[in-house]
Design brief:
With 510 residues, this protein is mainly β. It is built from six helices and 36 strands. The strands form nine sheets. It has a six-stranded mixed sheet with strand order 1-2-5-8-4-3, with helices on one face. Strands 9-10-13-16-12-11 form a six-stranded mixed sheet, covered by helices on one side. A six-stranded mixed sheet has the order 17-18-21-24-20-19, covered by helices on one side. Helix 5 packs across helix 6.
């Protein structure tokens, strides 16, 4: 049972109440204001409110409203919210005007008025001037608004409860999540960026950066953590080539997931029972079967790929690589081992939609997740406010926050789950780094035989921006000289200039 810390909640509430000293209040701050007159005179100051759009109430003006205008109605008139829709809006306090012109917009009629002593305008929450808050411990108190963006000053540590990977239950310790996610080192102090995420049906465990997170079932609130640019690389899905399971004894727990390919990091052994040759009973010791099959040598540590198979009517023993396996009759579950580990999922879905997307704040956005092997469910976590994902994998809405977001895309069937990282860029410009990312993602899709597994971290070395692909030992890079370079071991180990960035932008659709 996870215990809620009342002192942490009180501390967060104190932060919320004391936030009026900032040029911006804490986003999002629930609002019960009927008008903005009490803020009159604070010209140029921005306030952020979590409200419900309404069509009931009086407003005067267009774009700039008298400060006794109903802010929930002004939000609908301005096109920020629909009646009944909840969301965060930015209110900018302005001086009084000599004239306010009414209009009919979005089903709301505003009124004309003459001189009035105070005004305000409304716009979408851009998240750009969030204050840096003290570490709240966990994010329980910020649960109200999925998509809300915050910044916290945090010192990384390894203590306390942590549930999930990339997306954490909101009672998880933020300082520990920051270390697990690779945003901070243990003991390092820095500013982290948090996006409030809708509740999840389950949270996956993983071992990352020397931190073990726990799995959990449904929990009512979640968050994602990154550096302040929102560009921290996501943790791969456990059991993938990029994050293999550690020290698994047997594969009995995987029975029934025929065709699925899973990855394990093990050290070759010569102890424990093994039944079969090439195809082994699923209670055979994995580390010993790996030596018998020739995938690993005795005492060698490496990543092996195991494909889950149906049970067999007969398993034939043999002597191979110093290991004696036994024969057996009928057994209900089996597996085979392969080398090299190639990143292929087998019958688990493989997400193949573009992994870079662009949108504009407060404008319509759509993105369809696509995958092989008939997924039965899709999800996307870490989406900014204004976007949501449907059961069919369609991400849609109008983003209300500018920035760079690393999104978990997930597709699952009865056999397993695939996860990839979508780079979602909301704003007016396409940064140069994103062009490199777009080219890399295109190469991974169209030339997967050379560049796998996909979605590796983007790294820098001197004038190169590059990805390294451990599945093939290949490098793919852009250079400040305007060209694209590759190293592909199976074609030789030399650096090859394959063409200009501009050329590949056109091919990749960047």
């Amino acid at each position: 049972m996870k215990i809620k810390n009342i002192m942490v909640l009180l501390g967060v509430l104190f932060c919320l109440l004391s936030a009026q000293s900032f040029a911006r209040n804490i986003s999002p701050l629930p609002s019960n204001l009927d008008d903005i007159t009490q803020l009159r005179g604070q010209n140029g100051v921005s306030y952020y409110f979590y409200i419900t759009g309404s069509s009931e109430g009086a407003i005067w003006g267009s774009g700039t409203y008298t400060d006794d205008s109903d802010v929930a109605v002004a939000a609908v008139h301005s096109g920020l919210l629909a009646p009944g829709e909840k969301g965060v809006i930015k209110v900018v306090i302005k001086s009084g005007q000599n004239d306010y012109q009414g209009s009919l917009l979005n089903g709301i009629t505003s009124n004309n008025y003459g001189a009035w002593s105070g005004s305000y305008s409304v716009m979408a929450d851009d998240g750009g001037d969030n204050p840096v808050l003290p570490d709240p411990g966990n994010l329980n108190a910020f649960r109200a608004v999925p998509g809300g963006v915050y910044q916290f000053n945090v010192t990384g540590n390894t203590d306390g409860g942590l549930w999930g990977s990339n997306v954490y239950t909101d009672d998880s310790v933020l300082a520990k999540a920051a270390v697990h996610a690779g945003v901070l080192a243990n003991g390092q102090t820095g500013v982290v960026r948090v996006v409030i995420v809708p509740e999840q049906e389950n949270y996956m465990s993983s071992q990352y950066n020397a931190i073990a997170s726990s799995a959990y079932a449904y929990w009512v609130g979640s968050y994602a953590v990154s550096d302040v640019q929102g560009s921290e690389h996501l943790i791969p899905y456990p059991g993938s080539l990029s994050l293999p399971f550690e020290n698994i004894s047997t594969l009995s727990d995987y029975r029934g997931r025929e065709g699925g390919a899973f990855y394990f990091r093990i050290t070759g052994e010569n102890v424990g029972g093994v039944w079969g040759t090439q195809v082994y009973t699923d209670d055979s010791r994995l580390a010993t079967a790996a030596v018998h099959s020739g995938v690993l040598a005795l005492n060698q540590t490496g990543v092996v790929k195991a494909t889950i198979l149906a049970g067999q009517g007969n398993y034939t023993g043999s002597v191979a690589h110093g290991i004696t396996s036994s024969s057996y009759g009928t057994w209900s579950g089996s597996y085979s081992l392969a080398t090299p580990a190639d990143g292929d999922n087998g019958a688990i879905p493989d997400i193949n939609s573009d992994l870079v997307a662009y949108g504009q704040i407060n404008q319509s956005f759509t993105y369809q997740i696509s995958a092989t092997d008939n997924p039965s469910a899709f999800n996307a976590t870490g989406l900014p406010e204004g976007l949501s994902v449907s059961a069919s994998g369609l991400i849609s809405g109008a983003p209300k926050v500018n920035g760079h977001f690393k999104i978990n895309l997930l597709a699952s069937n009865a056999i397993g789950v695939d996860m990839v990282e979508l780079s979602l860029n909301i704003g007016d410009t396409q940064p140069v780094a994103s062009v490199s990312e777009c080219i890399f993602n295109w190469a991974e899709r169209d030339y997967a035989v050379y560049f796998n597994p996909p979605s590796q971290p983007i790294l820098k070395f001197m004038d190169y921006t590059y990805r390294f692909y451990p599945g093939t030992g290949a490098y793919l890079a852009t250079h400040t000289d305007g060209n694209v370079y590759v190293i592909i071991p199976i074609l030789g180990n030399q650096i090859i200039n394959v063409g200009t960035i501009e050329f590949f932008k056109g091919i990749a659709g960047c």
